[in-house]
Design goal:
The chain has 6 helices and 6 strands. By secondary structure, the protein is an alpha/beta fold.
Length: 212
C-alpha cells in the first residue's frame, strides 16, 4: 500500500486571544470562515496534506489558546514543533506589542531550530488598522523571520503563509539530511523515512512528531 505522506510537520499557531488564529486554521484546512467568535479552550488541532516539490507533506497544525490561564498547557506543545506562526491582529496594537512576549515563550520552550513566521491577520479591515505593515516588517526583520499579512475572512495570503512555512521547514530538513528537493535520503526529524525493503524499520527522529 502506498504511503499517505512523505513528511509530517507539526506546526503551532500562537498569539493573543481574539487575533484570529482559529479562523486562519479553519480557512486553511476547511476553506471556511465563521463570524462567530468562540475562544479556543486549551488547544485544538487540524490536519491538511499538501504537495510540495513532488512530495506529500502532512501538516499537523495546533491552535493554542491565547489566554494566560492556559499558558502551562499550551507551552507544553512548543516541544517538537517544527514551525510556529506568531499571529497578531492588525487592528489591535496590544496584540502586536505582545508578540515579543510570545517570542520569549518560543525561546524558552521550543527547539532552537524551529522555523518562525510573523502573521498580521485581519488585513481586510484597513479602516480599523492600528499596526502598519511597515511595523510588522520591521519587527520580523529584527528577529530574522518572515512576515506576511493575511485575512481569514477575505482568504488573503492564508495558503501562501502555510506553504511558505512548510517550504522553509522542508528545505532545512533536506539540507540537514544532505538531500536535494527530492528528499531521497532522510535522516532528520519530521520525515517519514523510506525503508529499505531488505531491512526492518527502526526507530528514528520520527518520534519527535508524535502526539502529546
Amino acid at each position: 500500500m502506498a504511503k499517505a505522506y512523505d513528511y509530517l510537520f507539526k506546526l503551532l499557531l500562537i498569539g493573543d486571544s481574539g487575533v484570529g488564529k482559529t479562523c486562519v486554521l479553519l480557512r486553511f484546512c476547511d476553506s471556511a470562515f465563521s463570524t462567530t467568535f468562540i475562544s479556543t479552550i486549551g488547544i485544538d488541532f487540524k490536519i491538511r496534506t499538501i504537495d510540495l516539490d513532488g512530495r506529500k507533506i502532512k501538516l499537523q497544525i495546533w491552535d493554542t489558546a491565547g489566554q494566560e490561564r492556559f499558558k502551562t498547557i499550551t507551552t507544553a506543545y512548543y516541544r517538537g514543533a517544527m514551525g510556529i506562526m506568531l499571529v497578531y491582529d492588525i487592528t489591535s496594537e496590544k496584540s502586536f506589542d505582545n508578540i515579543k512576549n510570545w517570542i520569549r515563550n518560543i525561546e524558552e520552550h521550543a527547539s532552537a531550530e524551529v522555523e518562525r513566521m510573523l502573521i498580521g491577520n485581519k488585513c481586510d479591515m484597513q479602516d480599523k488598522r492600528q499596526v502598519s505593515r511597515e511595523k510588522g516588517e520591521h519587527l520580523a526583520t529584527e528577529y530574522g523571520i518572515k512576515f506576511m499579512e493575511t485575512s481569514a475572512k477575505g482568504n488573503i495570503n492564508v495558503d501562501e503563509a502555510f506553504l511558505s512555512l512548510a517550504k522553509d521547514i522542508k528545505a532545512k530538513i533536506d539540507k540537514k539530511a544532505g538531500t536535494d528537493q527530492t528528499g531521497n535520503r532522510v535522516i532528520s526529524g519530521g520525515i517519514r523515512p523510506k525503508q529499505d525493503s531488505n531491512k526492518k524499520p527502526g526507530t528514528s527522529f520520527w518520534s519527535r512528531c508524535s502526539l502529546f
